[in-house]
Amino acid sequence: MLQTLAAACSFQEDIKKSRFAAHAAPVASVAEAMAFVSAHSVADATHNCWAYRIGNAYRYNDDGEPGGTAGLSCKP
């Protein structure tokens, strides 16, 4: 049985001179997931990696990081 979040949540951590931010929320559709990604992407960030899973369908994006190292690890 798949689990889901009860509410949106965020976490941020600064390591050396880099800031890492994570945002997550329950979504019911691809459109809702992509709207969440758009709303939480930072225009001047070096990378905005993301992933979503709705049922058995999922998609992720490494946004310029080496393939499979960022977005894929976000995939629930």
Automatic annotation (TrEMBL):
Species lineage: Bacteria, Pseudomonadati, Pseudomonadota, Betaproteobacteria, Burkholderiales
GO molecular function, one term: transferase activity
Source organism: Bordetella holmesii CDC-H585-BH
Family per record: Belongs to the IMPACT family.
Protein name (database record): Putative N-acetyltransferase YedL
Gene3D superfamilies with a match to the protein in the record: Impact, N-terminal domain (3.30.230.30)
Keywords: Transferase
Biological process, per Gene Ontology: regulation of translational initiation
Domain (Impact N-terminal): residue spans on this chain: 16-72
Any one Gene Ontology cellular component term annotated for this protein: cytoplasm
A Pfam short name: Impact_N
Kinase in keyword set: no
Matching InterPro entries: Impact, Impact_N, Impact_N_sf, Ribosomal_Su5_D2-typ_SF
